[in-house]
């Protein structure tokens, strides 16, 4: 009986020793292992997309005859079926619209219910040749009280008009007046320049009619 207990006690000791040895082996550092350094982080710059080419500006002359409604933000067709394009071709200045106002001496009041003012130039590409240029004027600004209130000069392809008074030419306030000028285009552009004298230059519409065509 004493021998059995001793043998059992030895077995227990061996078991404990085996567990200790096993635990020690698992926790011991592995001196033979190879430590690999982490791969460096590389910032990848995305490729720059190719630039999109900007199409060249369209300098194709408009279809004749050309009618520009100065100061108007949209095109319209008059009572005779003529298309008037929205305000374009002017350098500098500003626009004003006065819809609904009464206009004397005009078949189509809308032509004179908006204006471009304080401009320095109007340019329109044209094939070389002869044209009739009609400039439409009407004094509709209530700050002008009579003749001499607005005076300016303009030049239509070399034809000079000095000290032009809209009120005096038309005969009164909100009264339409048309100045027709024959021109000969030789450099591919119609150029009209404006210069102030008293108040700012103003204009309500421009018609460009080919040859001797006139209506």
Describe the protein in words.
Strands 4-7-12-9-10 form a five-stranded antiparallel beta sheet. It has a four-stranded antiparallel beta sheet with strand order 1-14-8-11. It has helices at residues 2-27, 166-170, and strands spanning 66-69, 76-77, 83-84, 90-91, 94-97, 114-117, 121-125, 129-138, 151-156, 159-165, 176-185, 189-198, 202-203, 205-210. The chain has a domain at 66-210: Galactose-binding lectin (Jelly Rolls, Sandwich), CATH 2.60.120.430. The chain is of the alpha+beta class and 215 residues long. It starts with a helix and ends in a 5-residue tail after the last strand.
By CATH reckoning, the class of the domain at 66-210 would read: Mainly Beta
Order of helices and strands: HEEEEEEEEEEHEEEE
- Can you name the CATH architecture of the domain at 66-210? Sandwich
Characterize the overall form. Answer: globular
Return the CATH topology of the domain at 66-210: Jelly Rolls
Query: What's the helix count?
Result: 2
Query: Which regions have little confidence, pLDDT < 50, spanning 5+ residues?
Result: 1-11, 13-37
The description of the largest β-sheet is: 5 strands, antiparallel
Report Rg. Answer: 44 Å
Write the layout of secondary structure elements.
Elements: H1 2-27, E1 66-69, E2 76-77, E3 83-84, E4 90-91, E5 94-97, E6 114-117, E7 121-125, E8 129-138, E9 151-156, E10 159-165, H2 166-170, E11 176-185, E12 189-198, E13 202-203, E14 205-210
